[in-house]
Design brief:
Residues 22-188 form the Copper(I)-binding protein CorA domain. This protein is mainly beta. The protein contains one helix and 15 strands. The protein has a single domain (2-202), classed as Jelly Rolls (Sandwich), CATH 2.60.120. The chain is 8% helix and 43% strand. Strands 2, 5, 7, 10, 11, 12 and 14 form a seven-stranded mixed beta sheet that branches. A four-stranded antiparallel beta sheet has the order 3-15-6-13, with no helix packed on it. A two-stranded antiparallel sheet has the order 1-8. Strand 10 (117-123) and strand 11 form a beta hairpin.
Length: 203
């Protein structure tokens, strides 16, 4: 059953990337960050990697942010929660010159945690009008490994001895816009499936 779910998720993503005829997904919104700014996101506990959805991420059960750089810069994104047993996770993509669609659009409601996310000739889901090309090039990803033992390959479990917090640090090499998603991964038993508060800071 687990393999079956993974195959479904892979097929959904492949179709979204390969086909320009499928409408893109329009986010409800995202937060534009400047250095040192924090925001409270609403995030579901399995939204970054859901085993019931082929281990894909859920766009509308996660929350989204962005920032821009004009020169290469070290960036730190931290996501933390006070909810016991909740493990936040982050993926960052670069939306450069090849990305001509507004940043409110992403290729599909199912997102990959650790790879590029692309759709050419993306269409608005409501009007069916072409909004441009979506080219999200993956930069960095990781999840809070503290507090549990599951460590799936290629997902980048990060530890800092503080369960409920994850921090990504990387060099934003290219000028332009970076978009990131914050979700939940592998919650402890008993955690509510309703969206929880996760404080996100970009430095």
């Amino acid at each position: 059953m687990k393999l079956h779910h993974q195959l479904i998720g892979t097929l959904v993503l492949t179709m979204a990337i390969a086909s320009g005829t499928q409408a893109a997904t329009k986010l409800n919104g995202f937060v534009s960050f400047t250095p040192g700014v924090s925001s409270v996101f609403k995030v579901q506990n399995t939204s970054w990697r859901d085993p019931l959805f082929g281990n894909m991420g859920w766009a509308h059960k996660s929350s989204w942010g962005s920032f821009s750089v004009s020169t290469p810069k070290i960036i730190s994104i931290e996501a933390s929660t006070k909810v016991p047993g909740f493990h936040p996770a982050i993926t960052v993509w670069y939306r450069g010159p090849a990305d001509t669609a507004p940043d409110i659009y992403i290729p599909d409601h199912a997102y990959p945690q650790n790879s590029n996310f692309v759709e050419l000739g993306a269409k608005d889901p409501n009007t069916n009008l072409v909004v441009g090309d979506i080219s999200m090039q993956v930069v960095r990803w990781g999840y809070d490994q503290d507090g549990h033992t599951q460590r799936p390959p290629f997902m980048s479990g990060l530890t800092d001895r503080v369960a409920g917090k994850v921090r990504l640090a990387f060099v934003a090499q290219k000028k332009g816009t970076y978009q990131f998603v914050v979700g939940g991964f592998n919650p402890n038993g008993g955690i509510s499936s309703t969206k929880q508060d996760v404080t996100v800071t970009v430095k």
